[in-house]
Amino acid sequence: MSLTTTSTVPFKVADLALAEAGRHQLRLAENEMPGLMALRAEFGESKPLAGARIAGSLHMTVQTAVLIETLVALGAQVRWASCNIFSTQDEAAAAVVVGPDGTVDAPAGVPVFAWKGETLDEYWWCTDRIFDWSAEAAEAGADWIGPNLILDDGGDATLLVHKGREFEAAGSVPEASDDTSHEFRVILDTLRTSLERTPDRWTRVAAELQGVTEETTTGVHRLYELHAAGELLFPAINVNDSVTKSKFDNKYGIRHSLPDGLNRATDVLMGGKVAFVCGYGDVGKGAAEALRGQGARVIVSEVDPICALQAAMDGYQVSRLESVIGEIDILVTGTGNKDVVRVEHLQGLKHLAIVANVGHFDNEIDMAGLESLPGAERVEIKPQVHEWRLPTGRSVLVLSEGRLMNLGNATGHPSFVMSNSFTNQVLAQIELWTRPAEYPVGVYVLPKHLDEKVARLHLDALGVELTELSPEQAAYIGVPVEGPYKVDHYRY
Amino acid sequence: MSLTTTSTVPFKVADLALAEAGRHQLRLAENEMPGLMALRAEFGESKPLAGARIAGSLHMTVQTAVLIETLVALGAQVRWASCNIFSTQDEAAAAVVVGPDGTVDAPAGVPVFAWKGETLDEYWWCTDRIFDWSAEAAEAGADWIGPNLILDDGGDATLLVHKGREFEAAGSVPEASDDTSHEFRVILDTLRTSLERTPDRWTRVAAELQGVTEETTTGVHRLYELHAAGELLFPAINVNDSVTKSKFDNKYGIRHSLPDGLNRATDVLMGGKVAFVCGYGDVGKGAAEALRGQGARVIVSEVDPICALQAAMDGYQVSRLESVIGEIDILVTGTGNKDVVRVEHLQGLKHLAIVANVGHFDNEIDMAGLESLPGAERVEIKPQVHEWRLPTGRSVLVLSEGRLMNLGNATGHPSFVMSNSFTNQVLAQIELWTRPAEYPVGVYVLPKHLDEKVARLHLDALGVELTELSPEQAAYIGVPVEGPYKVDHYRY
Amino acid sequence: MSLTTTSTVPFKVADLALAEAGRHQLRLAENEMPGLMALRAEFGESKPLAGARIAGSLHMTVQTAVLIETLVALGAQVRWASCNIFSTQDEAAAAVVVGPDGTVDAPAGVPVFAWKGETLDEYWWCTDRIFDWSAEAAEAGADWIGPNLILDDGGDATLLVHKGREFEAAGSVPEASDDTSHEFRVILDTLRTSLERTPDRWTRVAAELQGVTEETTTGVHRLYELHAAGELLFPAINVNDSVTKSKFDNKYGIRHSLPDGLNRATDVLMGGKVAFVCGYGDVGKGAAEALRGQGARVIVSEVDPICALQAAMDGYQVSRLESVIGEIDILVTGTGNKDVVRVEHLQGLKHLAIVANVGHFDNEIDMAGLESLPGAERVEIKPQVHEWRLPTGRSVLVLSEGRLMNLGNATGHPSFVMSNSFTNQVLAQIELWTRPAEYPVGVYVLPKHLDEKVARLHLDALGVELTELSPEQAAYIGVPVEGPYKVDHYRY
Amino acid sequence: MSLTTTSTVPFKVADLALAEAGRHQLRLAENEMPGLMALRAEFGESKPLAGARIAGSLHMTVQTAVLIETLVALGAQVRWASCNIFSTQDEAAAAVVVGPDGTVDAPAGVPVFAWKGETLDEYWWCTDRIFDWSAEAAEAGADWIGPNLILDDGGDATLLVHKGREFEAAGSVPEASDDTSHEFRVILDTLRTSLERTPDRWTRVAAELQGVTEETTTGVHRLYELHAAGELLFPAINVNDSVTKSKFDNKYGIRHSLPDGLNRATDVLMGGKVAFVCGYGDVGKGAAEALRGQGARVIVSEVDPICALQAAMDGYQVSRLESVIGEIDILVTGTGNKDVVRVEHLQGLKHLAIVANVGHFDNEIDMAGLESLPGAERVEIKPQVHEWRLPTGRSVLVLSEGRLMNLGNATGHPSFVMSNSFTNQVLAQIELWTRPAEYPVGVYVLPKHLDEKVARLHLDALGVELTELSPEQAAYIGVPVEGPYKVDHYRY
């Protein structure tokens, strides 16, 4: 792979020759993303995002490609990186760069910096690139241009701006200590280079930014913490907590992609097996339903007594992992916490049990502990599938090196689910861009009428007929005929 | 049935001789209500409700009997009426009056005013009785005693106090107009009699009241409206929106009692039948799951696009009622709205289709319209099951005269579900009684740590093992080790 | 209850005044029994059963009433007893006796000898009565008339004829020994009385009989044993093994009536509970599905490795009862074997665990052992629901005294399921009556085209559209266009 | 690809270098195939298949590789071809050729003639090769050696022998007529070449053969027809109708591999979609369960009223394909019949609806009709996934060119399921080889005790505890304690 510079705007992807294959997939995905296509129809003329320059950091998949092209159709300029080193679908990245009207020789699409299998250094280099709009500035004959919106997944792009500006204010980037993780060292190095080159780069970027829309629980958590600490630099819309995101993407997305990833990785029958799911939030609910739907016997663990009681009422055994460790064939973790699956658990599993993470970071499984376990040996069965031979004489199969296996072993959430999430993203970008006065610095969820709109845009494709309230009925329950229909604390 | 006065405190129930049978059922129910029993164990000594005088208006069932005796065990004095003319289980009412230590000849329990099959006049007379503590005053040698807490279901007790005080302030009870419903006429008559007898009765009662805890969506809705209008007279805790109530009682309760009611009423096989469920809120979700679990093909209707999309993602056909009316064998409505099932629907159903309401009021089905339909004839198959012969030549089977069939045709939600709801009720009563400073006039939900406590008290009975967070894990996700574990807007 | 003799033909039921209520239920049931109603339409004119005199021994329920009236509509004369002391629905029995055109004062229906709660002596007296056609003989002016067909459930009627003839051939009824069960002693007494009165009664009856159609696994098992021993006296059609019986009645019937019986008996929530199902045949499959559909966690036991593997593949834990005895809330047995639930199991269950038999005889649960357990005490909670207080200090709730709880605590299988079974019965009776040459002494299943016919008659009521083979397609798979479609060993 | 001849025995596979990757997968598969591994343990010493020379024609997958090496471990000599042009997993074929002890340079395994993507000419050449044991003869210094057993899937190997011998007896191979299918022309050509070269080849082969064990419904159907016509040349064991094959492979295999294939082919969300399943036999039951488990709304079609009624009782809508064609997102056919999905259906589907065959031959979907439809255009999205643009302006996505998509788009049934089927195969081969006297020419199913043995060998791996009958219980139901437990006509 080499830096491709055939365009006036630089980009870096695995292979532009994959663009045609990618375009086929985009075309099929568009049929599965009615929300985004409806926004193109509604806003393609009025172009509410004209003037918006969006720095996007989100898994560079086929679905994201449809998102990117929707943002462009609504008038935005866009640059893109992935938010995970393994999650890029190279043919999608290529198709986006080439664009619907470009060719491999004359790409006319969006600059993407992403490929499957980045190193951490490459990853943060890519993230840095989405904030460098010098080519666009040159093209526009401007002195400097920065992005004015971030579309983020997990908060890495937002982190880079905040840390960059913090270190610029301090005048230096701190040294790494012994405790500093490998990844944070890379971030420090990236920012140190930047500080040396342009001491006010991130300060300027931050000032220009009109806001961020954030996709995930983890990213949102960071934003609320930043805001609570008084350090948030620009308004943020929490897309994750739109009902049509958290209750759809997390639950129905995992229901689809967990068994898909297990199949592609291992071809192991789920029927009749004992599957253990750590966590019964939305992700765990989707995981458990999928496994049961394939005939597995599902056991769940939970720390929250309410979710634990839900799991029991849904018919699942609820146990501590260590209580049943020796019975487990398939171990799935989806908690968003760390050290959920520990080395002692891995050593207690059945021979060739499968270990899969659908939570967030790879530290849900103590991969560091496994890697340093004396006598443990790692055998690659195929990419993203490793047999770890343990000192016990037994092995476990670890998927995607402990990272998100629904992305690493499958192709992520399917288009229809992502259409819900991404329609929220686009509406959130429109909100921040067109109604800035409504959003002073802070963290917001989308108003319920937009959440309902997202759902509404996905009904026809499924053949759903919606019932309409009569004015009398609407008055009786005290809502407008056209919605929103529920109080804010309604749980769905 | 006649007024029973063997005690110094009057009461009125169907037949005290049913007390032994009722006591058997209370004993079994106690085994299924671990939350309430745990509160007896935790607070039986300290008696935090000592001094509390509770006017209770809630279906007088076996489960409520265990609630009442728990309130008493925690130190409260209690008087009780049912909140529905059909929902009283006469043996439970008898057992409560007799009390665990009393006898039929010397009842030593709680004054109850409730029997199955009250007229509306009798119903409001009973509700009035729970506010009359003159016997207790006499016993205590006091001039006057009023209740200081209401435990309400649907808001009838709260309504009576508010209307009573309003009319006392106005000096008169208004005349009914042509539009006044039959039930509101009865209320006006009840308050007119009261005003004539004691012109400041409700004003005194209202002043004494330290708050109300409300069980249902409908009652809560009334409270928010009252408060928004500035007319709420005392603080209210919204028990309905505790997760362990709304997501358990509504969903898992209906999942149990809908098929139970259908079976007891009709013995009709659900397998293979087309069942239509109006509304896919928590009640509709539970109804649809139960029917599918019995092999029915379930079609759902919704007005809210988010809930409609959930129904589709859960695999249900989502249609307007009129689109599929001729295919339906079992029609269930659980929306909380009015006129959901209209006369034109009833006329379009298959011959002998079953019509069942698990929402709230009988106006979910247009029973008034049916009753006035020329040529329609009502044939009683057995109590609470009526064949309505329609001018079309077809018949429909209407359960519980269009009222809540899970109460009218079955025995309501089972004990375990109600234990969750009622443990919330008791904790809410304790909050209002012991921490009044925390609750100025307004409508509150219980703090999340109490909601989690309710769940926690029900885990052992189901054999659930809860996983514990390590301090490091708790810090990582920013929660206390012992909870609460979720942000307030978490949807479960 | 007293012998009712207002008709020229004697009968004995609980109360003829229940007939109107029963007729209402028959009318509703007819709507749910499309197979039987279709036979009335098809054969009501031609009356293929003209001349047939049927002695029926089968649970005297509402559904059986529709069966009886179908047999009559097809030309048969019928007498009826129940095949279980608890299973009679008294209003159904009354309605059948009164008949559609009769009145309470002038019953014009079929002689029934059955009521809920017979003693064993009464039970065998009733069974004896269906073989006594002297009233019909008197009416017809004949010297003697016997039945020429048996419709049997469990084989009691068939047993009585075979034993009666055996003892008549031997010239005496043997004495009971110490090992003789109580029930068999009653049979011996019944036959002893008969032998004394009419020494050749059963010999004559047997000679007249043209065959029996048998409903159950147990009865069929007896028939195959009799035939293997060369003792079978007349041809038998095994209705049980029609696909539309065994795979429908057993599975879908239990799926319906098990939760119904649990609810009516105990009102205990199934959701979240641990339910154990002994046996994963058709009955066990239906039981497990019903319990899972209500949110229970289901554990299954099996002796047959194939059925055990099926249970595992369907997602159930498969364990020996003793391995998990202390976790069980609801224990269901449906094996058809004896001593499946033993006293040591009962003593190991959780406090107030429910014990329910949906297999066949009460000896699936060792009730005899429980009754003789020192220190065990039986407390009636309500009829058919008994708390057994055990020496362990814990109690169990035994339903229907260990007999079939779907009959004792609920109302048996619902009409639609029974319509399948009973349509097979009627077709089998027609076969034996109209084509005797095809059925020399032996045990037969119905030919597949009749089995398919039974299914076909039930499709319209469920809105099922059947696809038709083209002649080319039929030829391609080598079947007639109109069926039968499968080889005999096909398993469905 | 070129003919590889590094061994003394010729073989032909795609690439021997894939052997290491294949061996990894074999190792994992062995862990999932406890039945086969148990047979190796039981019979590895005694080698009951010593002397057997097996010509195998069955999908050359990883699972088949474990089967082949099990046959070898039991003493057999084996040659192998695939039974489908697309189903070979090239790494599995390579691993088998190399063998566990060989190397790429010195393969020491079994001669395989199979690769993914054969032409029909190549396919029948491969099938021919498994009957040519001249290399083995040369090695053994024998004049001629033929196979003495066939292990067949679909009957192609058996067909070749029968047709070959038929034409040798006739002295010539008939000419193809206009109606002759392309495939049968290839067969005729293959046999014509053979006849020219060795006029008595197939006659000798047929004489040597001691029997065939057949895997599939289709193959079994051919065998019964041959036998009925008096043309069957050697005994056959019908493995397909072992319960542990037909009720496991067909149902649970498809439940696994249908969604797997849909995912790998299209990544389309199944949740919320309308899926139509043609046929509700075992394959259709598994397909419908899988789709429902993923949240699809499933509609079923059937020609057999019994299966149609089962589908309805399981909660599915049962409709004719043409009645709902315009609502369908995913169309699955699994009937075993031809022309089930016709061109008029394809033209009526929703835009980009998916069309998938899990039945048997590609003529379930009228691919020939589609290919000759004027105006239809085929666009390859990726291998085995084609968009057919139709004259209607809509497209459909046809998977695996209308052939079995669970093999073409996924990796076939998973190891655990195949372990059941293949354990039956091995036991059947042992029966034919070691007990020829028991099997005169005819078609047999395995005795039930062997069927139960297959199940028994798979229980431990799933943690299943089997319950044991006491001698008293076994006697009570009239079976041996150790089984078999069911009558032959039991349907499971």
Report a brief summary of the structure.
Chains A, B, C, D: One of its GO terms (molecular function) is adenosylhomocysteinase activity. The structure is a homotetramer of 492-residue chains. Chain A has 492 residues and is an alpha/beta fold.
Question: Can you walk through the features of this model?
Answer:
By secondary structure, chain A is α/β, with parallel strands linked by helices. The first copy, chain A, has two domains: 16-244 and 412-450, Adenosylhomocysteinase-like (Rossmann fold, 3-Layer(aba) Sandwich), CATH 3.40.50; 254-409, Rossmann fold. Chain A is built from 20 helices and 15 strands. An eight-stranded mixed beta sheet of chain A has the order 9-8-7-10-11-14-13-12. A seven-stranded parallel beta sheet of chain A has the order 3-2-1-4-5-6-15, sandwiched between helices. Chain A starts with 18 loop residues before the first helix and ends in a 15-residue tail after the last helix. The relative contact order of chain A is 0.11. Residues 1-7 of chain A have low confidence and may be disordered. Chains in contact: A-B, A-C, A-D, B-C, B-D, C-D. The interface between A and B is large, with 61 and 61 residues. Chains A, B, C, D: It is found in: Cytoplasm.
